[in-house]
Write a structure and sequence with these properties.
Layout (H helix, E strand, L loop, with lengths): L1 E6 L2 E5 L5 E4 L18 E2 L2 E3 L14 E2 L3 E3 L5 E3 L2 E9 L10 E9 L2 E5 L9 H7 L5 E5 L8 H11 L3 E5 L14 H4 L5 E4 L2 E3 L10 E5 L4
Parallel strand pairs: 3-5, 4-6, 5-7, 11-12, 12-13, 13-16, 14-16
Antiparallel strand pairs: 1-2, 1-15, 2-3, 8-9, 9-10, 10-11
C-alpha cells in the first residue's frame, strides 16, 4: 500500500491493485484565510468522509472520477479494499457540541488502517470492540481544540497499539487554525521518523514497536 498525505486530515491510500481512496477531502475556499493547502482536484475511486458538517473534511466534489462516497458505518467491500465505520463523536459531550464523527477502518493489502477523522474524545470500550482488528497504521488527529489533543492522542495510541502512527489535523505553515503543531506531539517521543509526503507500507516490514511517522506536505 502507498499512503500520501495531502494536508490536514486528507490522505490518499493506494492499494497494490490500483484502488485509490481519499479520506476527508478539504475545500480551501471554505477557509480561505486559514487553510492554505493546494486545492485537491485529483482522481480517486472512493472517498470517505468522517463528518459532513465541516468543509475541511467533506469536500467530495473536489475529487474527480469518484464512484463511492462513504459516510456510513456499514461494511463495504470496494474493489480490493474493505471499509467499515465506527461511531464516535466530534467532542467530549457525546456530540452535543460538534456532532458525530465516524472512524473509518480500511483493510488494504493485508494492512489494517484506521482514520480517526475529527475524533473529539478518548475511545471507550464499545468503540474499541467495534474497531475489531489490531491496527497497523493509525491516522490520528493531535491538534486539540476541535479534536483530541496530544495527551488524549497518546491515550488512544496506548489503547490501540498501532505499529505506525501518522499525525494529522495540526497547525502547519499551510493551516492557520488555532490548534497545536506537530512538535507538541512528538516532543520526548522515541521512534519518530520524518518522511516525504508519500510512503510505501508493507505488512512484512512493519516495525515491532510503535513508530511515529511525520509526513511532509507535498511540494
Amino acid at each position: 500500500m502507498q499512503i500520501s498525505w495531502l494536508g490536514h486530515s486528507c490522505f490518499l491510500l493506494s492499494s497494490d491493485g490500483g484502488t485509490r481512496i481519499i479520506t476527508d477531502p478539504y475545500d480551501v475556499r471554505a477557509y480561505a484565510s486559514q487553510l492554505l493547502y493546494r486545492p485537491l482536484d485529483i482522481p480517486a475511486d472512493a472517498v470517505t468522509i468522517s463528518h459532513t458538517s465541516h468543509g475541511d473534511h467533506n469536500y467530495a466534489d473536489g475529487i474527480r472520477d469518484r464512484r463511492l462516497i462513504k459516510t456510513k458505518l456499514k461494511e463495504t467491500v470496494f474493489e480490493d479494499v474493505k471499509i467499515y465505520g465506527v461511531a464516535s463523536y466530534h467532542d467530549r459531550s457525546h456530540g452535543s457540541d460538534r456532532g458525530d464523527n465516524t472512524i473509518f477502518i480500511f483493510e488494504i493489502d493485508g494492512l489494517i488502517v484506521a482514520h480517526l477523522g475529527d475524533l473529539g474524545h478518548v475511545l471507550n470500550e464499545v468503540q474499541m470492540r467495534a474497531i475489531r482488528s489490531p491496527i497497523d497504521v493509525l491516522l490520528c488527529p493531535i491538534g486539540g481544540n476541535y479534536t483530541i489533543d496530544t495527551n488524549e492522542a497518546d491515550e488512544v495510541i496506548k489503547k490501540l497499539k498501532p505499529k505506525i502512527v501518522i499525525p494529522m489535523h495540526y497547525r502547519t505553515a499551510h493551516c492557520k487554525f488555532p490548534i497545536d503543531n506537530v512538535d507538541a506531539f512528538i516532543v520526548g517521543k522515541e521512534n519518530v521518523k520524518k518522511l516525504p509526503w508519500y510512503a510505501t507500507i508493507d505488512k512484512a516490514t512493519l516495525p515491532e514497536q510503535t513508530e511515529v511517522w511525520v509526513m511532509d506536505y507535498r511540494k
